Amino acid sequence: MKSRLTASFIGSSMNPTELRRKPLPEVMFMGRSNVGKSSLINCLVNHKKLARTSGTPGKTRLFYFYEIEDKFLFVDPPGYGYARVSQSVRERWVEEMERYLRRADMLLGVVMVMDIRHAPTPIDYDMSLWMAESHIPTVYALNKADKLSRKRRIEAVKKAQKELSFDSAGEVISFSSQTSEGRNDLWEAIEGWKEDKR
Known about the structure:
alpha/beta; Rossmann fold; 7-stranded mixed β-sheet; 5 helices; single chain; globular
């Protein structure tokens, strides 16, 4: 995968199933609202400001769509967990996310983004299990790997592999948006999904 990719923002919506877009293979990035989903997307395409980042957890309140190389659409939904919004809004996010996942015919798979410094939370586990039971290809990106030593990164990956060892569980990748560790591995997983669809 070359360093800098052609990437552009194409639109956002609270209801992703109604957003008009090209029929390209889609990859959704899910995770709690403080794990660096947007930074990870920016790292993957090597654009500093493609996906919106914020120091305030829960800033993303819509589903954002980005076209990558005229080959993929990356989907950045609201993060779950810490957003400072009402319960009714959070429930609608979950409802729209599930509707999208069930109806998105072009969905290749889901990248579950987690903080490598912490064990998967109950909601991380539940979401990952739901993906597996729904037969949605998933890879787990343990972000912020630059915050740990190499030894602790290896330990964290092994721990996550053990905790997410249910049937159809995906690959666990150590990732850093700061150093690009894991970038090639994550792209290989995404490209693999595309090959499997053919």
